[in-house]
Specification:
- The chain has about 150 residues and is of the alpha+beta class.
- It has 4 helices and 5 strands.
- Strands 1-2-3-5-4 form a 5-stranded antiparallel β-sheet, covered by helices on one side.
- Helix 1 runs antiparallel to helix 2.
């Protein structure tokens, strides 16, 4: 049985740091249509922030002339968020998802760690020279049910 899609957003924005906050607000506003608690909302916002930051910083090398796309689908008990870029891509996804690994020595390399900690599912697809797509799934109402 397919879950009913309650709502959705699709947006494309410039690859600038200010849009990390915008993406957090958009996804939080959509997710707030469900009965989620503050902790679930904060975890979702952090995971989205990390995905968008990775696209801007690593995918595009902080070039503001590029575009990041964000899609979010709201279901009765979960939200799916996809962040995509058409930047440099990731050569070795498994290595990139290792804690403390970063292509930028000024960064801590914890973006994927935070995404995996705060989302219930993280899928990364990437091809060098063609970009990266990160899909996050956050189940709502699971706190306390485990």
């Amino acid at each position: 049985m397919t879950k009913p899609l309650l709502n959705e957003i699709r947006i494309e924005f410039k690859s600038v740091g200010e849009n990390v906050g915008l993406s957090r607000i958009l996804v939080a506003a959509l997710a707030s249509q469900l009965d989620l608690n503050v902790n679930e909302l904060e975890e979702l916002k952090v995971a989205v922030s990390e995905a968008v930051s990775n696209a801007i910083i690593h995918g595009y090398g902080s070039r503001p002339d590029r575009k990041v796309s964000l899609a979010a689908d709201l279901y009765p008990d979960e939200i799916h968020v996809t962040v995509a870029d058409d930047g440099v891509g990731i050569e070795d996804i498994q290595k990139a998802m290792t804690p403390a690994y970063s292509t930028d020595p000024e960064r801590m390399g914890l973006g994927f760690v935070f995404m995996q900690s705060f989302a219930d599912q993280v899928e990364v697809t990437s091809k060098p020279g063609e970009g990266t797509r990160v899909r996050l799934v956050k189940r709502i109402g699971k706190d306390g049910a485990d």
